[in-house]
Amino acid sequence: MILGICAETCFLFILPLFLYDGLCFTHWMITDDGLMIKSVPDTPYHMVQPHSLVQFLDQGRKLDSIAHMRGFIKEHEKKIHLHENADDPELETKIRKTDKDCIMGGFMSTSKDAFLLAYTLGKLVEDHEILASVKSSDDKQNPKMEPHCTYDLQFSMYAFEHFPSVQQRGKLKIIPEAAFQKLLPLNYAITEFGNHVAKALEMKPTNDSFLRLAALYWRIKGDAPKAVECFRRALHFTTKKMQARIQFDFGNLVHRAGYPSDAIVLYQLALLKINDAVIHVALGDAYALVQNRSEAIEQYEIAFSMDPSMKNAQIKAAALKCDRKLITAMEEQHKNLLDTIKEKNMYNDNYEAIKKMEESAKENVADLGEKVQSALIYDYFTYGSLPYSYCRSVSLSGRLVMQCTVSDWRSYRAVREERHRKLAPKYNAQSVVENFNDSHELTVFLEKLGSMKKMNMDDPTGKAVYPRKLLPSTTKLLEYYTSRNWPNKTLCESSYWHFPLSSPEFLPQLFLSPDNKGFKSSDLLGKYLGLNDGEEHPLPWYPPVCDIHISDQPPSAIFKLPAVRAAATRGPSLQFAEDKLRAVFLKIMDDKVTEADIAQRIGTLMKYKIGPQWLVYNLAALYWRIVGASSEAITCLRAALQTEPERYADVALVQLVQIVLRSGSSYDNYLNDAAVLLNSAMHIDPNEPMIHFLMGIVRILQKKHVTALAHVRAAVILDPFFQPAVAVLRTLKCLNKNEQKLVGERLNLRCCSQMEPNVYCFGIRNNQCFMMSKKGAFMGTTCAVNSKNKEEDSCRRAFSFAPFILPINLNGAKDSEKKVQKQLIKHAKTAQRKPNIGVSDEIPLDYGAEESLRKIRKMTAPSTASFFQGEILFTKSSDLKETEVIDSWEMDVPVDKIIIPEERLTLTHVPERRKMVAFDIPLPPKLPLPSKDQISSGIPYVSLPAQRLPNSNFCANIKMSLAILREQSTSTWLSVTAKGVNLGEFIDFQAPVDLSEDFEPVCPELLSPSPLLTLDHLPAYHLRHQFIHYKPEKGLTDAFLKLGKEKERVEIFLFLDKDGVHWSLSTASALYWRVKGDAVNALKCLRQSLNSAPPDMRDVALVSMANIYQQAGLLHSALITGGFALKISPKLVAIHFTLANIYVSLEKYQHALMFYYSTLSMQSNFEPAKERIRTIYCFGENPIVPS
Matching InterPro entries, A to Z (predicted)? Predict the structure, then answer.
């Protein structure tokens, strides 16, 4: 009886071992309530020395420290995010645009000249009256005298001799203060004034009035040292009444000479006796120059309160207030930056400490091999001896231990599962649970789970992450990553070792989350299991095995690929463990539950068919990837693809690719199989950046860097925040900038035999190979090497000269060798090809997802800088007959590439209109010129003097300088009436106009334009949206109103005939848009006109187009466009005058003179042409009169 009871008791305790179908547990833990003991699989307490109490306590201390330090890291992360959010690179711009003081003050504070102004307290009336009492002889024979203040005055206590400006008065410099001439009597020349004062000083050298007037003379002349000498003597001999005024004038002099500190003292002394707004403004200027903004603002406000007409004082005060606000904001930004750096350094220190602590803790934990041995030994004692496994006792360190080996893991697991199925029915698991007192928790859990069983929930609960909508800030970041300037040389050099190129030993560890598809994995693992936040799954916990969920149907073609089959035969190994995915796995539940708990939840979801099973199997595969069990992971992925073979199969395929890259390399062409899997994933969802990124990694491993660059760029375009892709893109672009490294990456050393140890091939297993001959040339060869060849290791050596392979000597090679060498050069050049040329076609993106495809195509399309276009050659004589019609123009050889800016142009980048030429096409070798007859006919209308004297009568009354002429925007327009067209035939100007709506003459887009007719090849057309210097042409307002016969508003009804919109109406519409300053719409109308106008009428639109391009700064495009108009109508004034103005803007004054004279030959009374001829003649350098 006792024996029977013992047998039954032993059976009850042993039976759970028979029902267990996985690993054994070596760590048991008491629950927080102290009532239960639960097992913990894959625990950090699975010690190397489980018998050592010291090691156990040490491990506990280390794990507590790691948990404590992780809390610190989270705090640092929060602070870093707060600091980064507070950082605003556009802070200054925002303040300047929104603050009322900054708006009023503008950028005045950045100009020092605004605070170096000359001031006066009014005319010196009394001094002039005293001077008038001194007779001045008008002896024209004697030379004019100047008022030198030479009265002997070695030192004066009134002359501020201690000032640095006075002590160094010989070095003072000021700009001539011509504005003070208004203080002189009318019709009083400066030379006469100086002579008069000089004679007065001869008579009375100590008269303070004469000394003040002498100082005024020298300030007008710009001689500061002599003015100081006069002020010294004037201060010494003046009366108390005039002392304050002299102090102010003296202070203004040293202020403008660069001594504002001295000027402040003099201004303050003057204010003690004269409380004038001008003195307050001058004092404010001096304070501003010494950076005392508070005092300067106070002085400006006092001046404005005393004299509200001094608007400049109010503006200066606002500018300085704006400066103070900017300085305060920038100081806060700087402090925030320092705090950010401090937090990041502390974060890095703690992160490194945690890594060291984890490594130390891992040293105490048994390795994966020991854990696998424990599981195999457990199976041996549970199921007995199993096929495909062999367990034996061996002697180790003088003691017997058991070791087991497995020859075929897949077959072994199948046999073990079969044994388990046979044992399970012998005893109902439910009855066993009911016999244990500690199983109540599991019983309650299973009862609550009843309503959720077999719920598939196949539809996503949220919106898919991709395609991601690009915000303006994201677009700017994307343009930055795809620009040619990123990364720069400094970034490449600093990050080269931090971001090495991917290799079989350095592969990314990624998981395509089902959350990207709109599912929520955390709800599936928590809410749908009836588990609250932070609540654990009841014991026992098992890993999620997928074998029993595989159907009997044969595997799909994917699992028959050699690389996949090779990976499936691999046993568990630390070599294949993807440790970095552990953080991703735990993050699913926000790091609130353990890895083993999540694994059991996955197993429960599989067992009771809760939720989308393809998602559950993918999570199970993720678990097995983390622990390094490739074959188990592939089994789960097979179950996932059987459940969902189409809609969400890309999630499983992305995991399968990474398993193949790690554990399928025993098959030679495993990279090709990986590419096949990724292509299948792209067919399913081309919106996922991870798929494109992994395809780029595969191409890198295949040494196909150009194709890899295209795929990685596509990943960044789909998601600029996908950091793994950004890092690889940076590495590839840096590598692309270093041609030698790129060639070195493409060439691989191969050893064919002992006789041929140095053979170089493109790619790892490519047969395009070459070797060096005795003469130093490279010859093509073939070399088929078996990876298992024993000779391979014996002759392997460093690849030393591959980076210098490009300079191949073609002259010394045979014809047969040249073909191979040319092919090598072709491959090398392909590797060095710019990343934006011809790479987009290599991405298999033709699988739908139009939004993402358009985005990628837009960003990867070749820039217009790579377009080739023809030059315009004016081959015919300029002496064209009046009746001759030009129907076409000639195109010649390709010209230089058009330079289109990578980023949008701003006034900061291009502050001057003339600098827009940098983005224009080069000038043609033959420039448009008028005929000699036209030039000679126009010369008589402006008779030039024999000698060019700037002070001559011919040059005396010129209204403009050469600089004004060059920068002046002159609007020209050729009316259609000049070509004999009556607009009244197309527009009823007498009909009443309905003003209830604001109609505008918007020209329709061309359906079938002719790029040659509309000159679309010119850079100016491609930059039409960035005409930052183009302004409304108000000068054309009258011309536009005349179209409507003096009406205030013209409403243009587009007249449609059999050829569409009439070209004359398009031209008139362009005039409207030019008045409004809308170059884009104006050019749209002009292109419409060019496309539909008769050949002899196209010059009307061409003149307007040339004038728009000129005012936008695209002078070369303007000249070429005007040249076309000249060929069509060589005798129209507007064309000649427009071309002349373009040449002036190009500073080609000789060409400009020719066209101004030809203009006069057709309209002799055209005064603007005459005025410009005089300006060029008088101010130009050696102008040659055309003959």
Answer: TPR-like_helical_dom_sf, TPR_rpt, TTC17
Which is it for strands 1056-1057 and 1060-1061: parallel, antiparallel or unpaired?
antiparallel
Question: For residue 1185, is pLDDT > 80?
Answer: no
DSSP 357-382: HHHHHHHTB--HHHHHHHHHHHHHHH
DSSP 503: B
Q: Provide the 10 A C-beta neighbour count for residue 104.
A: 17
Do residues 466 and 718 make contact, with C-beta atoms less than 8 angstroms apart? yes
Nearest-angstrom CA–CA distance, 353 and 347: 10
Distance CA 987, CA 375 (A): 94
CB atoms within 10 A of CB 494: 10
Cα Rg of the chain, angstroms: 44
SS3 of the chain: helix, strand, coil, percent, to 5:
55, 5, 40
Evaluate whether 379 touches 412 at the Cβ level (below 8 Å): no
- Helices within 571-648 (DSSP H only): 581-587, 595-607, 613-627, 630-643
Instruction: With CA atoms as reference, report the closest residue to 717 among 698, 693, 736, 682.
Output: 693
Nearest-10 Cα torsion for 911, 912, 917, 920: 50
Which of 430, 450, 463, 593 minimizes the C-alpha distance to 528?
450
Helix (H, G, I), strand (E, B) or coil at 964: helix
Residue 614 structure tokens: 């393809």
Please say whether the beta carbons of 784 and 765 come within 8 A. Answer: no
Residue 803 tokens, joined:
């980076």
Residue 208 contacts residue 238 (beta carbons within 8 Å): yes
- Rounded CA gap, 105 and 797, in Å? 70
Q: In the 8-state DSSP scheme, what is residue 780?
A: E
At 579, give phi and psi (nearest 5°): -65, -35
pLDDT tens digits, one per residue of 937-956: 898 888 777 666 655 667 77
Average pLDDT, the chain: 76
| 285 within 8 A of 256, measured Cβ to Cβ | no
How is residue 1141 written in tokens? 């103005």
pLDDT of 774 > 60? The answer is no
Write out pLDDT tens, residues 125-164: 677 777 766 766 665 556 778 898 988 877 777 778 889 9
